[in-house]
Amino acid sequence: MKNFKHSRKILLSGLSTIAVMSTAAPALAQTEAAAETDSNIIIVTATKRNANLQDIPFSINAQTQADIQRSGAVTLEDISRNVAGLSIQNLGPGQSQVAIRGVSAGQIVRDQPGVKEQVGVYLDESVISLSLFTPDLDLFDLNRVETLRGPQGTLFGSGSIGGTIRYITNQPDFNDASALVEGDVQLVDGDDMGWHLKGAVNVPLVEDKAAIRAVGYYTQYGGFIDALREGGGITEDVNSGERYGGRLALALQPTEGLTITPRVIYQEVIANGNNRQEVFNLFANPFTTTRPAVTLGERQQYLLLDEAFRDETLIADLVVNAELGSVAMTTVTSFTDRNILVSRDASALSGSVSVDLGFPDAAVTLPSNLRDVTDVEQISQEVRFASDNDSPFQWVVGGYYSSVERRYRQRLPTPGYDAFTDATLGAGTSAAVANGFPVDSPFNSDLDYDIEQFAAFGEASFDLTDALTVTAGGRYYDFREVRTISTGGLFANGDTGVVDKTSSTGFTPRLLVSYEVVPDIKINAQASQGFRLGGVNDPLNVPLCTAQDAAIFGAFQDYDDEKLWNYELGVKAQRGGIRFNAAAFYTDISNLQVTLDAGSCSSRISFNVPKAHTAGFEWELGAEPIEGFDLGLSGSILQAEFDSTVVDGSGAVLGGVEDGNRLPSVPKFQVSANATYTFPIGSGDAFVNASVQHVGSRFTQPSDQVNNPRTFVSGLPFGGATGNEATVVDLKLPSYQMVNLSAGIELDNQLDVIVYVKNVFDENALLSFDRERGGRARLGYRVSQPRTIGMTVRKGF
User: Fold this and answer.
1) Which of 753, 747, 632, 754 has the alpha carbon at shortest distance from 64?
2) What is the DSSP code string of 498-542?
3) How far is residue 112's CA from residue 605's CA, in Å, rounded to a whole number?
4) Long-range contacts: 21-29, Cβ < 8 Å, 24+?
5) Contact 149, 102 (CB under 8 A)
6) 590: how many CB neighbours lie within 10 A of its CB?
7) Collapsing DSSP states into helix, strand and coil, what is residue 238?
8) Which 3-state string (H, E, C) describes 79-125?
9) Any idea what the CATH number is for the domain that residue 547 is in?
10) Residue 735 has what pLDDT?
11) For the chain, what is the total number of helices (H) and then of strands (E)?
């Protein structure tokens, strides 16, 4: 009852604010303000048609190309600093996880390939989200990034249960030739250089008939994590990397009313390490006596082997837009081919198992390389029809089909391991458990996923009066998933071709009401449903489990679809240079899919929590109080909690999932503010900009809020340690503040020069907690990029 009253208080306080805004609307509408100009209007396509951002009847943010350039944003994490309700859990390049409005299942890791995403990500019309490995796209030559808050199941389907993010690129222009080149150089953490060079060109080929747009980019990332090595050596900046790629789009307009746009996108991201700051490692801890005692410091980790991440992405799509009288038809055909490699130093993991098995120290210290390889091919087709007239009745209907083939492979090459296995456990043991996989690889897994989806959707709006519009829509979906698993090696179960199937059908509705109180001030209300497909957990690595962990986690085989209802009331107001958008919301979640570390088993499982909720208030304010001085303020207040308690077979609460405990990875409060002053100088303008972001405390996993600060007892007598030594870690990720400064000139000849300092006060923000084998092998944090000083030069032609 207490939790319900608390969430109701949050919701009612937000509604009160909105009510005050609507009551004060006439006064705002009557203030003297400059006439609205094109610069005050942002056109978005969140409803599958062009519309003013302020006319969209639900909560949405759009960061324009100008916003992205002036803020210096290069990743979605950078953009999130100015978007209320959007939070990013950084797990390394190309592996970040997105949450909107607190709808979060917690940290998903590399070996959970079957978990579905909670936020759908689109590149223009093509879906590109893939659970943990949504591509980390370059933001150059984007028109805008749209963040659609709340479930978008009607028009965007599964994977959009929390919301949708859309990267909208600049399209080929039939009329004007243009080009843009951008160079940047930066110093990261005072000792490593990063830089990028990017370019875009638009060429009309035939006037009003054909045009081509090409984009290319290369980025070198500076590193900031140092790796301690065996023998006392140090390798600096091990998490450096690079990203390169491009887009090529051809637009054809053979006849008036028909546009055909084929496009190809290629990108490769390479990281030489991870942004992991360790506090304990089996091979580097202060308790050893026969090995050098090591205390790890800020931005340090311990490695026996180099780590790497590589993501090669190819996307080819074809969009056809045709005007058929008063109806517009759009077809979207998309093909995606991705190859992802995550190579990590698993020496501490395999070494911890070797200690448990009684292997000699020489076996414990063998370098062990866990290699996760994911190959994905996806084909999708969407066809939709929409009204194209000025009638008070507007509609869109369509169908969607996709087929996904995902091949996931894990190998653990550990040269020399089989000899120690046979010497300790008996001759022939390694061959007996291999199950056809390579020698000297104590864990191997092949998982094949075949996922097929069909959906039919529609949405219609009707202007009941000049001020009142009602919109209703829904989506029917039909999913089929088949997973085949084979495993082998000493640490595995020896499964051979085990097939599991998951299927689901359903319907997700949405109802929206929009009322214009006075011109430019609207009140919006909606009720909408979203869903996320369930699945089957991978078998536990039983040979690694303690008997207790095997009993606790072995019962969780599969998990059901996650569904939620979102109830929302918002206000949108804009007059002259002032824009204020706010929303209060309550989300009722059923069968929330929560991920949990399965203790010593070196496995992760997903399971359903019967009930959970989020409730909150979000706002975004932009104003120009005096000419040339722009202010922005955005933030969110959020309560995200479990409403059910889950227990294991012994009756103990499982993994912190208890009524009233917080959902993982999202802060209760976050706010960002920015100010820009622009003034004329010579043949152009100069500007100075400052921004600050505050992110509240979070927990990486639900269990982290239980028995915290947590005492991790290694239990591993290795290197002279007794196995009873404890490492105490505060698992509550502390709040942090990021301050960024920039200044520049923007000349009339399209030359921009910008200098900047990111993370001015060198905040070492702890972004997520990283543990290996329940903390028996390694403990650490993912951390933010330190102070970065740089300069960007941009020239248009």
Assistant:
1) 632
2) EEEEEEEEEEEEEEEEEEEEETTEEEEEEEEEEEE--EEPPPP-G
3) 8
4) 21/521, 21/571, 21/573, 21/580, 21/582, 22/517, 22/521, 22/523, 22/571, 25/517, 25/518, 25/521, 25/573, 26/517, 26/518, 28/521, 28/573, 28/575, 28/578, 29/518, 29/519, 29/520, 29/521, 29/575
5) no
6) 18
7) coil
8) HHCCCCCEEEECCCCCCCEEEECCCCCCCCCCCCCCCCCCEEEEECC
9) 2.40.170.20
10) 96
11) 10, 43
DSSP structure class, residue 716: -
Task: Name residues whose C-beta falls within 8 Å of residue 723's C-beta, 6 or more positions apart in sequence.
Answer: 713, 714, 715, 716, 717
Residues in a beta bridge with 113 = none
Residue 206, classified by CB atoms within 10 Å of its CB into exposed (0-12), middle (13-18) or buried (19+), is: exposed
User: For 644-687, how does the pLDDT look when each residue is reduced to its tens digit (9 = 90+)?
Assistant: 998 877 778 888 899 999 998 889 999 999 999 999 998 999 99
Q: Please give the model's pTM, rounded to 2 decimal places.
A: 0.89
Q: What is the token pair recorded at 114?
A: 């079957």
Q: Residue type at 513? A: V
The C-alpha atoms of residue 205 and residue 154 are separated, in whole angstroms, by 38
**Look-up: residue for tokens 């290197």?**
719
* Domain span at 263: 2-796
Q: Tokens at residue 200, please?
A: 């875009």
Between CA 580 and CA 632 the distance in angstroms is 10
Q: How far is CA 387 from CA 264, 330, 381, 664, in A?
A: 29, 11, 20, 42
Task: State residue 26's pLDDT score.
Answer: 34
How much is the pLDDT for 108? 60
Low-confidence ranges of the chain (pLDDT < 50): 1-38
Residue 627, Cβ neighbours under 10 Å: how many? 9
Whose tokens are 């993994």? That residue is 655
Of 47, 157, 147, the residue nearest 508 (C-alpha) = 157
Q: Which of 532, 596, 588 is nearest to 561 (CA)?
A: 532
Scanning the structure block, which residue is given the tokens 């959009």?
Answer: 160
**Residue 102 structure tokens:** 């607190």
pLDDT, tens only, 558-611: 788 889 999 999 999 998 889 999 999 999 999 998 877 776 676 777 888 999
Query: Closest by alpha carbon to 403, among 380, 375, 384?
Result: 380
Q: What is the pLDDT of residue 162?
A: 85
* All residues at 6 or more sequence positions from 402 whose CB lies less than 8 Å from its CB, including other chains: 127, 378, 379, 380, 381, 451, 452, 453
677-684, Cβ contacts within 8 angstroms, sequence gap of 24 or more: 677/628, 677/629, 677/630, 678/628, 678/629, 678/630, 679/628, 681/745, 682/747, 683/747, 683/748, 683/749, 684/745, 684/746, 684/747, 684/748, 684/749, 684/751
Who's near 81: CB < 8 A, 6+ residues apart? 71, 73, 672, 691, 693, 738
User: CB of 533 within 8 A of CB of 560?
Assistant: no
| CA separation for the pair 754, 31 (Å, rounded) | 36
| Strand, coil or helix: 608 | strand
Give the residue carrying structure tokens 């965007």.
156
Asked whether the beta carbons of 716 and 776 are under 8 A apart, the reply is: yes
Query: What whole-number distance in Å separates Cα of residue 695 and Cα of residue 401?
Result: 39
* pLDDT at position 40: 64
Closest CA to 159 of 447, 561, 500: 561
Structurally, how many domains does the chain consist of?
Answer: 1
Count of alpha carbons within 13 angstroms of residue 53, beta-carbon side: 23
Rounded Cα distance between 173 and 492, Å, is 56
* Residue whose tokens read 């993982």: 664
**Residue 201 CB: number of other CB atoms within 10 A?**
16
CA distance 106 to 85: 16
Cα dihedral 110, 115, 120, 126, rounded to 10, equals: 80
Structure tokens belonging to residue 16 = 């009160």
If you compute the radius of gyration of the chain from its CA atoms, what whole number of angstroms results? 27
Decide the pairing of beta strands 369-387 and 736-747: unpaired
> What is the distance of C-alpha 236 from the center of its chain?
28
What is the widest separation between alpha-carbon atoms in the chain?
89
